[in-house]
Each structure stands twice: as C-alpha cells, then as structure tokens.
Recover the amino acids of this structure.
C-alpha cells in the first residue's frame, strides 16, 4: 500500500515519512514490512518504502554546510536501527523473487532495486568532504554496507562493465576515485541488461517515477548528476557489456537510430539509446579483452551474504572492523550530538504505544490521503542536498537543455 499511495514528488509526503522515522515506536512497527514478505508485490512495496526512508527529509531549513548535512544523515540512520537487522534476509528473499520474475519476463523487481541503488548513491552525495571527519561516518558505513549486501546476492548483483571495475565493494570504497560513478553506471547496465532479457517490456524506463524528491535527476541522468567524465583511454569492456551491444536489436538500433529498427515487433526508444551510449563512453566494446584471468562472475568471499556484515557504529580511522564471521550482530547506533539541530523528543510511551497512532490511522484509512497529511505544514518537495551542495544550483539551468539533447539524440 505504501508503494501505491506515497510519492516523494507530492507536497508533504517527504515530511510525513521523516516524522515517522522520528518516532521510535513507529519505526519498530514499520520494520515489520521487512520481516514478513509473502509476495513479489509485497517485496516491491517494502523496497520502495525503504527508498523513501533513505531520501525523505522533514527539515524546513536546508543544512547550513556540508558538516550539518552529514550530521542529519547520521541521525536518520541511527533512528532506522530497528529495521537494519532485517535487511539481509529480506534482500535474500527479494533476490529469489526477482530471479523468478526475470524468468517470466518481468523486470519490475529489478527496476525497484535499481532505483533503490540510485537513491543510495544520492544519499552518498550528501556526505561531502568537510573538516569534521566524524560527521557522516556512521551513515557512510551503513550505505556502504547496503551496497555490499546487495552485491552479495546473485540475482541482484551488478556486473562489471569494464576490466578496470572493482571486484570487491570494499576495494571500490577504499579507492581515491568517486565510487558513485562506478556504482551508477554498473547500476544502469544491470537494469538495461535485465530489460533486454525481458524483451524490453515496460517497467524499466520510469523506475524512479514517484520515488525521488521533486527535481532530482533519475538514474539515467547519472553522467550529468555526478559530473562523470569518461576515462581516457577507455578500458576494455567486459563480456556482459559486449553481449548486450551485440544483440541484434541493439546493433540495428545503433546503426539507424532510436525507434527505427524493429526486431520481433520490438524497438528501442531514445532513452534506451542514450543509456547505451553513456555506457559505451566508459568502456570500449571494440578493444580486445586483456589476457589473463576473466572478470569473476561471483564476488569474493568478503562480499558474500554472510560476509556483508554490518560494521560498527563508530568506525576507526583505519576503517571499520567486521563483525564475527557468520553472524549478523548489530552494534548500537552512536550517541549523536543534536546541538546544531535539536530534534523534538518522542513521547514517553513512544517505544510501545498501546493504541493506534495518527500514522497508523493513515495506513488503516487509505482512501483519504490528504486528510491524514493535513498536520504537515509548509512541507517541501525537496529532500535537502541531493548530491553535493555546490552542484545543486547548476541543475535547474541545465535540466531542460539536457532533456532536449536526449530527445534529439
């Protein structure tokens, strides 16, 4: 129901969801959507709700600087501790649902998890460099752990598109380059590849629709949003990317243009062609593959499902220490300082309310959304700095020109 009724593009929704996170008792109740998933539809609803929890912002005032923005993200993840321990088994089951859906020609589950990955990339961009090295480290550890967890599940794994891509998420996050760029293009390729295996049926192009704050670039706009400059020289493409470009429909469309090549009643539109060109700018599909061991199809042991363990709440300067092998032990969230932005304390019975709260009443009466949200005053559609505060102002002026260029390409 959350998936159908909530849209982060609508006024007030972002604040409303953020208010739920501030209620410890409500977070514990909402965590149940990750504990019991009985159908693919339930699974999509749960993952979309997680995406909203990651991006929703109830603050009326934008953060004054990068440090303050990072502290907000630390508070968000500290309040979400009740559901974090439920995510490993949830995503394992989600992967099983997604694999079955792909076999049936349904890309919707893969599209939802790809949209979630893009939301995590956006959240990473809120953690800009600043003088206080502690601010943002807790939320960063959670985001990196989530990427490692998703990568550990075969049906949800992002293949490499170039021979220079990282086999291990830990190695990627430790590299001096902007990890978001590799994550973004591998995420885009994963969904494109899934769409091709499903015959390019509907459900992949608008995966972000309704689940990103207003004016947020979609996952297909990752080169512009991240200011991603193509590498020089381009590394050789991996076999999975070559296989996609060697498909008959893709090859014909690249030769004659979007929508003009038809194969088995199908054609590729402008968005598909633009997304393929973006990938080709980061990996050379004509360069010979280097000799040596092939790019592994499975992640190393450190990113297997049991190895994707939640790091401690306060990582040391040398990096977090993994939890004991074969466990999902969770460390407590840190005691976060609220001096820069006081947060109202929850009610005395917030831990285990006995009667239905206002938020619960909303879920029970889904026919009157506006009445349940009327208490949210002066809500904003935006959810704060999306990628980097210094880049945000440029998007508004570039957005229309970019979309016209895509349409004419």
């Amino acid at each position: 129901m959350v998936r159908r009724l909530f849209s982060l593009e609508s006024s007030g929704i972002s604040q409303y969801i953020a208010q739920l996170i501030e209620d410890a008792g409500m977070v514990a109740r909402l965590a149940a959507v990750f504990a019991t998933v009985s159908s693919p539809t339930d699974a999509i609803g749960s993952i979309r709700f997680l995406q909203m929890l990651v991006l929703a912002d109830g603050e009326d005032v934008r953060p004054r600087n990068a440090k303050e923005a990072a502290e907000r993200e630390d508070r968000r993840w500290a309040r979400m501790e009740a559901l974090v321990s439920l995510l490993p088994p949830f995503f394992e089951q989600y992967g099983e649902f997604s694999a079955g859906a792909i076999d049936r020609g349904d890309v919707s589950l893969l599209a939802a998890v790809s949209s979630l990955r893009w939301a995590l990339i956006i959240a990473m961009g809120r953690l800009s460099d600043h003088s206080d090295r502690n601010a943002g480290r807790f939320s960063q550890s959670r985001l990196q752990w989530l990427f490692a967890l998703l990568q550990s599940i075969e049906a949800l794994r992002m293949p490499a598109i170039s021979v220079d891509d990282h086999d291990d998420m830990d190695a990627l996050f430790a590299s001096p380059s902007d990890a978001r760029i590799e994550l973004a293009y591998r995420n885009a390729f994963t969904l494109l590849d899934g769409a091709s295996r499903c015959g390019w049926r509907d459900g992949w192009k608008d995966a972000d629709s309704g689940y990103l704050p207003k004016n947020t670039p979609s996952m297909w706009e990752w080169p512009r949003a991240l200011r991603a400059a193509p590498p020089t020289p381009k590394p050789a493409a991996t076999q999975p990317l070559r296989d996609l470009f060697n498909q008959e429909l893709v090859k014909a469309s690249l030769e004659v243009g979007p929508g003009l090549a038809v194969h088995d009643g199908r054609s590729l539109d402008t968005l598909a062609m633009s997304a393929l060109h973006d990938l080709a700018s980061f990996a050379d599909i004509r360069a010979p593959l280097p000799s040596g061991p092939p790019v592994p199809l499975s992640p190393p042991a450190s990113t297997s499902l049991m190895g994707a363990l939640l790091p401690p709440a306060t990582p040391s300067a040398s990096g977090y220490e993994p939890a004991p092998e074969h466990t999902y032990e969770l460390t407590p969230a840190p005691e976060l300082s609220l001096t820069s932005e006081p947060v109202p304390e929850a009610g005395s019975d917030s831990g285990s309310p006995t009667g239905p709260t206002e938020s619960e009443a909303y879920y029970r009466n889904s026919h009157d959304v506006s009445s349940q949200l009327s208490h949210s005053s002066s809500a904003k559609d935006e959810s704060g700095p999306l990628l980097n505060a210094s880049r945000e102002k440029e998007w508004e002026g570039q957005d229309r020109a970019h979309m016209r260029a895509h349409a004419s390409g």
